[in-house]
Amino acid sequence: MTDQERLAHDLAAVLRAQGLGGSATGGGVHWRVDLTTPGRAMRVHCFWYGASHGLLLGMNPANARARPRPTGNARFGPEYAATLREGAATVAEGRTGDAGEVVACARAWLAGCSRDELAVAAPFVDRLGRFMRAVAGRIDPRLGWELGGDPSYELWVHGEGRSCELKPNGEEPSCQFRIGQATVAFTPRLEDVGDATSAWLLERTPLSALPSRVPRASLEPHAEVLESDPARWHWLHMRERIADADDVLAELRPLHERLAASPIATRFFTYSSLNRLCFSASSHFPWVDPGLPPIAPAGDGRYGVGRDVLQLDDALARIEARLAGFPIPPFSGSAYHLEQRVLGVRLKALGSPLEPVLAPRGAWFDVVVPALGSTRRCLVTPRNDWTGQVRERAHLELIDGASTVSASWPSWDDAVAAVRCFCEDDAPLDEVLRAPGVEVQRRPA
After folding, report:
1. 219 and 244 both lie in a single domain
2. Does pTM top 0.90 for this prediction?
3. Alpha-carbon span 51 to 55, nearest angstrom
């Protein structure tokens, strides 16, 4: 029996003994306890942090050209992640290492307590959410913000081409200052949230002046190069990264030094996937790299370029040839920026007055086509997926008030026609979805 399974069964037994019900289900290391009452439910995922609790999970910060940041104190032992639902809606979440707190939460929630009342009965529930909402209350109301959920509760504040990402960090939040998707400055403790976010996003304080305006703010290496020359900014970071003997790309150093001197290669951007070096036309994730080969060390001074194993000179020539023939010129941004630009050109060529825009959403974007004279809008999924492969079908979300429909079309031309029909002609939704080959994933609620 795994530690996770033992925790789930022990918790379920305590809950049943107190007349609250509860059943443990799962498999492997994924175990949970579910409780239900008419109209309400509670699910508790049971975790155990052992020898691997200090592992760095998630995206490699080196791919974002940012210094790794502390991720909080490493845990050891049990952790219970509770999700409280009312009907189909998630009302609150929280984590604790104390099974007794979970029992108190279950008793209060199933008895009908509100989220505010849970702050007294089970303080661990929504603790970080309460803290970050209080932080958001200190932000200038002219700025829009959005708050993420469990486990990070990151608070995003967006301005034109800039943003701040705030995270819980003791008594005050930490803050990453961004230009586009790139972190250019960081402070581990932001005391005057209102002044700092206003300085960066409303006053547009120059990057060089930010440390004098925001106490403890430090600039990222080479940040001053980003706005004037993104490719040079990238390769300055990559030279430092490849010099690190502990980096996953260290074995590629001889080839990388040749690439860093190549006029063709240095127009593009790179990232790592495991121990492979990958090229992209975009400076940030989601990458734009369909058809570009990954490069991996093959031993004895050879390199794997795609499926071929080549000596250094041949590997360099092969990479440069593939890059020189790549149909998408390198650019600062991600797949979302490319999709917005391509879609805008296509609509204009068809004589449409519709104009796609980029709507920030946390660290990412949505490509949105607003309707003319109504609140309708379409969200367009970039044509290359998260793995860099080109999607066979075109995906849209059609939004009209509270109703959202996700659907796909056989081709991008078909999807563009649907966007025009929905947002330009104000056609009924059923008419838009009757086009040949449409596959609907989600109907209006």
Report:
1. no
2. no
3. 9
